[in-house]
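Example record

One chain of 149 residues, shown exactly as stored in the release files.
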Amino acid sequence: MAQQALHPNKEAFIEGVDHILAKWTALELAVKNGWGGRNSQTKRDDMVDEIVQHFDDLVKKKQKPEPSDLEDLLLDIMSEDFNITLEDNSAIEVARNICNIFAECLTGNFATVDKLHDERDAREAQGGAGSAVQQSHAAGGAAAEEEDS
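Predicted structure tokens for this chain:
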């Protein structure tokens, strides 16, 4: 049986969520370091599906997305799947960005998704998907060298 094609707005939203999560340093570190076990990448991919399902449920109930509700979902996933307790307020920033993407995609505005796509392509061209982690390590290495001096 053939799978039904996604509406362009939903397809763009899924892509946008994936791009936003790719920029989230805490999640990137969790996946790279295997904090979710051998299935860390799968858990990260499932996170996209859980977020999209959260928004699908809101649409069905005709409810407005609230960043604080999405933040709670993100914190739960990070805790349950990656054994991480975040205290850096990054989850609320990620939640706000996802809610903004959702609002844009509802109206057929894919400008931010396209921008995120281009930024991700540029990051990957510069050194792979782990560039934020590499930058973090490089910054830590430079600080350690200064301390040694």
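Notes: The two ends are 65 Å apart (CA to CA).
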